[in-house]
Amino acid sequence: MNPFTTLAARACPLPLANVDTDQLVPARFLKRSRATGYGGFLLHDLRFGADGQAKSVLPLDDPRYKGAQILVARRNFGGGSSREGAVYALADFGIRCIIAPSFGDIFSSNCVMNGLLPARVKESDAEALLAHLEQFAGAAINVDLEAQRIVCGNRVYDFSIDSFFKTKLLNGWDDVDVTLSFSEEMQAFQSRDAAERPWARPIRADRGD
Amino acid sequence: MRSQPLSIIDKLWESHVIVARDGGDCLLFIDRHLLHEGSFHAFEQVRKRGRAIARPDLSFAIADHYVPTRARAQPIANPEIARMVDLLARNTGAHGIAHIGLNDPRQGIVHVAIPEQGLTLPGLTIVCGDSHTSTHGAFGAYAFGIGASEVAHVLMTQAIWQKKPKCMRLRVEGATMPGTAAKDIALTFISRVGADGAQGHAIEYAGSAVRALSMEGRMTLCNLSIEAGARNGLVAPDQTTYDWLKGRPFAPKGESFERAVEAWDKLASDPGASFDREITLDGGEIVPTVTWGTSPEQALPVDATVPDPSTHADPARAAAISDAIAYMGLTPGGKLSSIAIDRVFIGSCTNGRIEDLRAAASVLAGRRAKVPGLVSPGSSSVKRQAEEEGLDRIFREAGLEFADSGCSMCVGINGDLVPPGERCASTTNRNFKGRQGPGARTHLMSPAMVAAAAVTGHLTDARELLEGRA
Ligand code: SF4
Q1: CB of A179 closer than 8 Å to CB of B159
Q2: Three-state SS for B411?
Q3: Residue pair B231/A106 in contact by the 8 Å Cβ criterion
Q4: Are B271 and B165 in contact (CB under 8 A)?
Q5: What is the ipTM of this complex?
Q6: Min distance B157 CA to chain A CA atoms (Å)
Q7: pLDDT value of position B67
């Protein structure tokens, strides 16, 4: 996974609260393999009508915000379903960082697994950022993960992120490799645990043990 | 010797830590890994890495999200859906993972059918690539939903990296009123704290009203933890838990069961255990509740009125209310109980268990529904039991369809959809825009409330129809 350190990119406002993962990618698209690309499904039903025609109600489709890699939204972004497809849709659309006052827990973790930064800001700061981006459409924002700082126009905003997520993003860590490096501890845990919690093992009625 | 009193959350956490690193991230051992059709992304990742499955004996797969709820004996007509159901069978088959397929008598929604098998036990860690995995917390398990990359990680390692969440305790004290259900407790709680109110927290549900709940009710309550933003919620195990578990196919047997109970009894929070946040609700104040908007936090007592955005000073809040009202096609200030519905749905991992069907049937018995509707039992075994009790006849005589088990109209990916613009009274968990189909409008409520709405054709306090019954 590519590390995330700093990002200077165009930002797009999405002045909505409770943008759940069902909206980020409607369930009917989840049958698709990731290889086919999920970018076209991002917020599909808010952006496109039943006839597939663009409704153009979101800044996402406004040419002034084209190429945005940062999204600014209101509270509870990515709540709901655990579908990682929501992050695939954002990532494949080109988004690398989302700024909002709060995020769904599973969504945040899915973001980090895919190298996207969920940056939590105060509600008033999200409003200020949204207002700036609406006034200066197409403006760029600077995001510095190490310093946990966002620079937008002539203002600086702090953001918060779980320290564990931060380390993972900064290093571009691959969880599986890290975990496998603890295989001795894993073995020791399993033999100790088998003795301590014999009831925890499923009884395989179907296999006769 | 321990000096510090511990909560059940602390105890479950500590007993599963394989490695703890500076900064607080821990590698946790996973006792049960549950899989469904959506797991194919994870299997793709495993294949790409060319790695083996660490503990196939601890993984259990079940077809639920995409399964058809009619004509089960015939091959699945829609080739894309058939492919999804088949893919799970092939992926699990290739790795020697137990699989409960479409026509297995144990089939059902993962969060209904897996507990029925006795695979969900107190003291376990349970993960699944599904946010409502929190349901299994009802047994005193540490159960949470994960994303596809995490599913792949668990498949390859049987462990997961997590930072310990903050702990919240919700106490519901006192007796609840007849005609109210676990769903009403949950919706009341979510509307008070907000859909992101418990983010970053694990919740312990406690208090006399929670103790008084059956396992079914506890599962409904824990299921909805995620709708308050918590990744998991749990209830300490007690005699209700043990009675429910005893004799289940995968639960410990005989003397092992007794020894397990001894261990499970030690899981309850110690007196004086500390929580980062404590919330208390008065059980007696909880009334039948419905959602009016597009987030589960937008819930109110059924005798309330649709909120008026113009009375909210905060522009972001007002905008959220206006947006929800516009999508739902409502009028600010209108009575919730006059909202006419087009159809009903009874089912899902939230309210598809036998008690839920009984509650709905007690309202519907001897009555006709004014609108069409679908009843999809949470599992094939719930379906059989409902038939034994004659509930299927009550639903059919009321004019509702009684179908097979699956996620069905909760998420609509098997084709059971609410048509665009239609309004559905539903026992499910999410009233998100488009959740039950593009343009569908969902009102969440308890099974008795959905049944009452079916009978009158509009949102209704079920207690009015239960008078002299139940
Ligand atoms: S019933 Fe609904 S919420 Fe439950 S697992 Fe299925 S789709 Fe998810």
Answers
A1: yes
A2: coil
A3: yes
A4: no
A5: 0.95
A6: 7
A7: 96
